[in-house]
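Incident review: delayed structure delivery

Summary: a single-chain prediction request sat in the queue longer than the usual turnaround. Root cause was a stuck worker, restarted by the on-call engineer. No data loss occurred. The affected request and its eventual output are reproduced below so the record is complete for anyone auditing the incident later.

Affected input:
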Amino acid sequence: MVALLKAIETGEGEPVSVINSNSYIQHNLAVADGLEGFGAVLAQLPAGSARVNTVRVFEDGAFVFAHTDYDFFGPKIGFDIFRFEDGKIVEHWDNLQTIAGPNPSGHSMIDGPTEASDLDKTEENKAFVCAFVEDILVNGKLDRLNAYFDGDAYVQHNPQIADNLTGLQTALQAMAEAGVTMKYDRIHRVLGEGNFVLVASEGTFAGEHVSFYDLFRVEDGKIAEHWDTIETIPPRESWKNENGKF
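Output delivered after worker restart:
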């Protein structure tokens, strides 16, 4: 998967052979289905313009997910999820956001720890993070916040929000005062390896229909760090495939 993403930058053809040419389901709604759709997007890139630096990559069964610093039609941070069958990629999801920041605490959208630990706790951590997103972000049970964090300590990589729970609360208050609403409606996918868990959700932000991809690092049974991307889901009439975002 890392080699395939790097091929966007290098133009190498060999890594593309990992895609199953007979069955490749595309969920990036700006890209047509199949291997031909992937090739058509690469052909549109200005020569020498792409840059790909995959910083984190994790595996969960048939799924591999990565966190990448892109220059791909402009600088972006992206999460990619690939599903494998018989050693070939058969399905792809992603979520891209234009690079912003650093945030008020000096963190970029992609810096921080990269290696998974606590591999024996993968399922426990996935269930814990899923419960957090369901309780706090979907259902707004803010009285349960203390169950998920070690006091105020929390490293934040969202470009608009400072570290710690107090930083999050300050940002949410500022958003509310500006009339900007954020709502998570449903969780679509939870993937993890060890202490890293990625949650793909659907909702609204500032009046737009969006996909939220949130990556959490768990430490000693509490959420310790967070990275995310938010991408607007385009109207259906502009989709290049009919597979849906999720």
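Verification: Helices lie at 2-10, 34-44, 122-138, 164-177.
Action items: add queue-age alerting; document worker restart procedure.
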